[in-house]
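Lecture notes, part 5. Sequence design as translation. It can be helpful to think of inverse folding as translation between two languages: the language of shapes and the language of residues. The source text, in structure tokens, appears below.
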């Protein structure tokens, strides 16, 4: 068994067992209490033992993982208080990604890979409209039409609407109103830049699971611009998690995870999600563990995560919560009850007293049981706390293992081209005179 990764100290070392990192985790706490630095420290520790990591960077601060730590008085004071001396700053191997292709390698999925359930979530469709979208996907599948980008889907929607009577018997009613609502949703998505996410080359999962000199690559998705469309952000990450679940082989309980996936702003995944989608999330989180993938949710309030998912998060790091409102007080009580109690520690009281960088920590032991909770200080990371300069970011992107592969979009023949050709052929037939070509005039 690999030695524990020391993430926090409280007089004793509090270590995350690598073999338990795929039993999932939660990093919670109010704004400004240290969640981002804790996420950075955990990711850095996993990378150091060869575990690739994927995370979204909401504020730009996590980009600092790609650079060694510089002089920082607060960090130096914390290290001295924890009795850590002579530590060498160290950057992690990093790959930057960006749906918009501005702050990292472009991230793409095909429309077919996204599927109707998640696409309906992005487009904010109701149940009837979602059913029509699912039928349109089935029409494409049955006809062998590839749905790669949004123009493919738009062309197929037009085709389905024009031939609704023909399709009704096999696929049900494809109402003009529902098709119009889906088309309007696509226009809104395009206005937000969402069309950049759909196309080829689509992201290959193996490119997220690479190592450099024995250290796991930390994949960082730029999410500052993406978060202006919360549904797109949450659904895009859920798509990626679903792809990992569907494509990776079963590995049981490995010595260390194949990948650890950090889901920041986790509440966006669950806000107003229909039951079908919540069931899907719960299933993926429950079963992806056996694929060697750990999922860690980062959120302000533990109540943001449904109980069916929260109960699966074995490793807990709880930063301070404020107790100003009845809902705040409920969250404090709920957070306190999720920990295995320690003698002499009033967990509920401690949650409101924690200072920045201090947390209540409980990791799983070698038998998968939660350790009694400890009040502790998170060990600062060896990489920079804070953003990179644009020049530093560009240098990291240029040196990446996948540099140049995703930058150029490919537009191969798919539903749009095939349907356009069919429509053109039909128009030519309609223009042709009856009985074939017109006779030539005698000279």
């Amino acid at each position: 068994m690999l030695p524990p990764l020391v993430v926090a100290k409280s007089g004793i070392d509090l270590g995350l067992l690598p073999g338990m990192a795929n039993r999932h985790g939660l990093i919670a706490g109010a704004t400004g209490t240290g969640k981002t630095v804790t996420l950075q420290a955990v990711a850095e520790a996993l990378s150091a033992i060869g575990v690739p990591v994927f995370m979204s960077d909401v504020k730009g601060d996590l980009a600092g993982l790609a650079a060694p730590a510089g002089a920082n008085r607060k960090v130096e004071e914390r290290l001295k208080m924890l009795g850590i001396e002579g530590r060498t700053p160290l950057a992690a191997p990093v790959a930057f990604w960006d749906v918009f292709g501005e702050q990292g390698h472009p991230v793409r999925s095909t429309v077919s890979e996204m599927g109707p359930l998640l696409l309906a979530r992005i487009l904010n469709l109701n149940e009837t409209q979602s059913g029509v979208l699912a039928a349109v996907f089935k029409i494409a599948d049955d006809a062998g039409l590839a749905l790669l980008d949004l123009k493919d889907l738009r062309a197929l929607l037009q085709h389905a609407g024009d031939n609704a009577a023909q399709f009704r018997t096999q696929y049900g009613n494809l109402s003009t109103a529902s098709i119009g609502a889906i088309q309007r949703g696509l226009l809104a998505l395009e206005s937000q830049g969402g069309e950049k996410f759909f196309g080829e080359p689509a992201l290959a999962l193996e490119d997220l699971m690479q190592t450099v000199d024995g250290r796991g690559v930390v994949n960082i998705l730029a999410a500052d611009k993406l978060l202006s469309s919360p549904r797109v952000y949450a659904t895009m990450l859920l798509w990626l998690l679903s792809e990992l679940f569907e494509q990776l082989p079963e590995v049981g309980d490995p010595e260390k995870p194949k990948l650890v996936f950090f889901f920041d702003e986790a509440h966006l995944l669950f806000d107003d999600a229909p039951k079908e989608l919540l069931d899907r999330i719960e299933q993926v989180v429950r079963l992806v563990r056996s694929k060697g993938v750990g999922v860690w949710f980062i959120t302000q309030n533990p109540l943001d995560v449904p109980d069916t998912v929260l109960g699966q998060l074995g490793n807990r790091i709880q930063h301070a919560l404020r107790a100003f409102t009845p809902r705040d007080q409920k969250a404090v009580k709920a957070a306190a009850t999720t920990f295995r109690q320690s003698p002499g520690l009033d967990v509920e009281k401690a949650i409101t007293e924690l200072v920045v960088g201090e947390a209540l920590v409980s990791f799983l032991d070698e038998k998968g049981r939660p350790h009694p909770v400890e009040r502790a200080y998170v060990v600062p990371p060896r990489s920079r706390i804070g953003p990179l300069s644009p020049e530093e970011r560009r240098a990291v992107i240029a040196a990446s293992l996948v540099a140049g592969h995703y930058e150029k979009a490919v537009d191969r023949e798919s539903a749009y081209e095939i349907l356009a050709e069919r429509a053109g052929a039909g128009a030519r037939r309609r223009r042709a005179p009856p009985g074939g070509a017109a006779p030539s005039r005698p000279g």
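The translated text above is only one of many valid answers, since several sequences can fold into similar shapes. The mean pLDDT is 93.
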